[in-house]
Design a protein that fits this description.
By secondary structure, the protein is α/β, with parallel strands linked by helices. The chain has 3 helices and 9 strands; from the N terminus they run αββαββββαβββ. The chain is 20% helix and 29% strand. The strands form 3 sheets. The chain has a 5-stranded mixed beta sheet with strand order 1-2-5-4-3. A two-stranded parallel ribbon has the order 6-7. It has a two-stranded antiparallel ribbon with strand order 8-9.
Length: 198
């Protein structure tokens, strides 16, 4: 472990203390897990504390852990993972927080702390259905307003529920039930003796 990572780990442990559920260092990166109840105050501390100074939110994404580890995962299903950068200290941290309720995943919004979180949180809502408490404009970003469901959830069907097409007779876009026939692709495992040889 480099000296810089040791300094960052020590600073994080001293400043955040009991708010840290776990701190992991792997491949030269620090990952924090914070309880959703402490998430907003911990994120503000990460931004404002003189020893940390994470001024920039680089990324925020949703995660669905329902099939993580081939189904061996027994924790909460949905999480928000945030990547922060300190320009002044030249270090990064990844912060993960889990929504306590799988049926209604709710995580505090950090869009008031970093304005860049606005669209990232909208994307996580649109694709995973994660709600961000305190976000002032939480609406779909990538899918159509009439879209049903959240397409990055592991239980979302591969072919979806409806398809959209342009109807030349009606001169507009229409929605209809999916017409794709499900099929099974069976790989060819037994080959002929002279397969591919001419």
């Amino acid at each position: 472990m480099s000296t810089k990572l040791e300094i960052l780990e020590t600073s994080l442990r001293e400043v955040l203390g009991e708010k840290i559920q776990s701190l992991n260092i792997a491949l030269g990166e620090v990952t924090l897990v914070i309880k959703s109840d402490d998430y907003l105050s911990a994120m503000q501390t990460l931004r404002d504390h003189a020893d940390l100074r994470f001024e920039q939110l680089m990324d925020l994404c949703g995660m669905d852990y329902s099939t993580y580890g081939d189904g061996a995962w027994d924790g909460a299903r949905f999480a928000a993972v945030t990547h922060l950068l300190s320009v002044s200290k030249n270090w990064r941290v990844r912060v993960r927080t889990f929504a306590p309720d799988d049926d209604m995943p709710l995580i505090p919004s950090v869009s008031e702390l970093w304005s860049a979180a606005n669209w990232y949180e909208r994307e996580a809502f649109d694709l995973f259905g994660i709600l961000f408490d305190g976000h002032n404009d939480l609406r779909r970003l990538l899918t159509d307003y009439g879209f049903i469901g959240h397409p990055f959830r592991k239980d979302f069907p591969v072919s979806g529920y409806v398809e959209m097409r342009y109807d030349p007779e009606q001169k507009r876009v229409i929605y209809q039930p999916v017409t794709i026939e499900p099929r099974e692709n069976v790989p060819r495992v037994i080959r002929e003796e002279n397969y591919g040889i001419k």
